[in-house]
Design goal:
61% of the residues lie in helices and 12% in strands. By secondary structure, it is of the alpha+beta class.
């Protein structure tokens, strides 16, 4: 019976899906804000099954990683290029991450004689960046070493990653949520809410998510009679719009120069809190007159207009002028699939997904001014996807000789660069090259899970050898290599750049590409303010760290 179970489990397809299933189940284990995660859980299960001698074909492993890394680049492309141009103030933390980690890894190679596989695994695990495994594994395969030695180093890569990832994750979460606020002498929740108010949260509705954001109500003109529609709207910072007026039996569309008469009934739409505040300036509230109400709709658009990048929402309204922004409101902002607080002081970036709320005519006008509507499709453009990966593989085959190092992007690096470029192209021409969010997330999640399972299964008995050789050294290094770059960034951000603490801590989470860390920060601060810093460094580090995989391998090989 036992032999038949072992025989069943050693079938490659069975071993793959057992690793993915049990690994993601194991990944649900949580201790406070720390969760193992499906990727690390899959690796642990695959390492265990690998002791039975089961392996996965390299072609499947390479295909899975190419799909994952292309989708990663595709979703990050719009924000990556925007942040490269204008996000240096936060993007410097990604550079600090790479420079500090490379110095620490060089010391580990010289002192502990780590081989390139173990070194790259330490890099991937401590920086909590799984994509490094693919680019580093490919770089290891190109070393001028016997095949069995390359296999051993690739096994060390997976094992070192698995051991150091958990400690790197614990280190960065505890540092950003507990230690860093103490070092800065702040209460994170209070600091986040203070910053939100400085950015205009007092006039915003986002902190009451259980109620509708934009509402419509009707009032008698009362005290505002004798003023123009434009004067009234400007007095409320354009947070309320008079859409229509009932004058006698007539229903009138409004313009900014229209004078309000004493007996007018005004139909207003606007932000909820502003609508409540404006009641004192108007007459009695009345039922919405028949024919006065206007259909309100919601549309998602991609922001591509260059001259508004970096403007705050308040500045955008001023630049547009009262006539062009009447009747349309930004009700949500998504950046790298993260919600960004919609506050008057929130700055807009290229590739932001804006949810516009208002009248159909006003939204159509805003779309022409700001960007492209997201096409309502759930179909993947496989022509675009296939062409993108082929281009990536071609780019990955190019190489550059720098001294003793033979640098090349490899399949993973090439697919990442192609994904960035194709994602940027799709942003500017959204009708072509569709890769819906749900499809991209599946490619990233399943592609990475399959790749990680294949790596873990291939590691086999070599995993035990590495753990026995280094013991407690790897966990300690995983913790140090995670926390030291974060500490350097905290010092630079707080003392030199004077970045607000909630945003700075979010940027540090982003330089590690750590989703659990930003989740913990948002939870602890009870605010989305840390996301503002997170998205910039995440977009840059998500590209920069995987590209460092071959560099780490080459560095370790040259120092041995």
């Amino acid at each position: 019976m036992a032999s038949s179970v072992v025989s069943f489990l050693t079938q490659p397809v069975v071993a793959l899906f057992v690793s993915v299933s049990l690994g993601h189940g194991l990944g649900l284990l949580r201790a406070g804000p720390i969760q193992l995660g499906g990727v690390c859980g899959t690796l642990f299960v695959a390492l265990a099954l690998g002791q039975l001698g089961v392996t996965i074909a390299n072609d499947l492993k390479d295909t899975a990683f190419a799909l994952f890394i292309f989708a990663l680049g595709f979703t990050a492309g719009p924000q990556f290029f925007a942040n490269i141009r204008s996000g240096w103030r936060y993007g410097i933390f990604s550079v600090i991450e790479v420079a500090t980690v490379l110095l620490l890894l060089a010391a580990a190679v010289v002192v502990l004689r780590f081989d390139p596989g173990t070194t790259a695994g330490l890099f991937a695990g401590s920086a909590t960046e799984s994509a490094v495994l693919g680019t580093a594994a490919e770089a290891l395969s190109r070393l001028a070493l016997p095949p069995h030695e390359i296999v051993r180093m690739q096994a060390n890569l997976a094992t070192s990653y698995g051991v150091t990832y958990l400690f790197g994750l614990v280190g960065i979460v505890v540092f950003t949520t507990q230690i860093a606020p103490l070092l800065l002498g702040i209460d994170l929740k209070a600091a986040a809410h203070k910053l939100a108010h400085e950015l205009g949260a007092d006039d915003n509705d986002d902190y009451e998510p259980g109620l509708p954001n934009i509402v419509g109500r009707a009032f008698r003109a009362g005290p505002v009679a004798g003023t123009t529609v434009g004067d009234f709207e400007r007095s409320r910072h354009n947070a309320v719009t008079i859409e229509r007026i009932k004058r006698g039996k007539d229903i009138l569309d409004t313009t900014v120069g229209m004078m309000i008469a004493p007996d007018d009934i005004l139909f207003l739409i606007g932000r909820r809190n502003s609508m409540i505040a404006v009641q004192d300036r108007l007459g009695d509230e009345v039922p919405v007159p028949a024919g006065t109400n206007v259909p309100i709709t919601s549309r998602d658009i991609v922001l591509v207009r260059r001259d508004v990048f970096g403007l705050s929402i308040r500045e955008l309204h001023r630049a547009a002028g009262i006539e062009r922004n009447r009747g349309v409101f930004i009700s949500a902002i998504r950046r790298l699939d993260r919600s960004v607080p919609v506050l008057p002081g929130t700055r807009l970036e290229q590739g932001d997904i804006l949810t516009l709320y208002g009248t159909e005519a006003a939204i159509e006008r805003a779309i022409k001014e700001l960007g492209h509507p997201l096409p309502p499709t759930d179909k993947t453009d496989f022509i675009f996807l296939g062409a993108g990966i082929v281009v990536g593989i071609f780019l990955g085959g190019l190489s550059l000789k720098v001294g003793a190092l033979d640098l090349t992007l490899g399949t993973g690096g090439g697919a990442l660069i192609a994904g960035l470029a194709f994602g940027w192209l799709h942003m500017h021409a959204p009708r072509h090259g569709a890769l819906p969010t749900a499809a991209a997330e599946f490619l990233k999640d399943f592609g990475l899970a399959t790749f990680i399972a294949a790596v873990g299964l291939s590691a086999g008995p070599d995993a035990i050898t590495l753990i026995a050789q280094y013991g407690i050294v790897l966990p300690i290094l995983g913790l140090l290599v995670s926390v030291i770059p974060a500490a350097v960034s905290l010092l630079v951000g707080a003392r030199l750049l004077r970045i607000e603490a909630p945003i700075l801590l979010g940027a540090i989470a982003g330089q590690h590409c750590s989703t659990p860390t930003i989740t913990a920060l948002v939870s602890q601060s009870e605010s989305t303010m840390p996301v503002v810093g997170y998205t910039v460094t995440y977009a840059i580090s998500n590209v920069l760290l995987p590209l460092m995989g071959p560099v780490v391998v080459g560095l370790a090989a040259s120092l041995l």
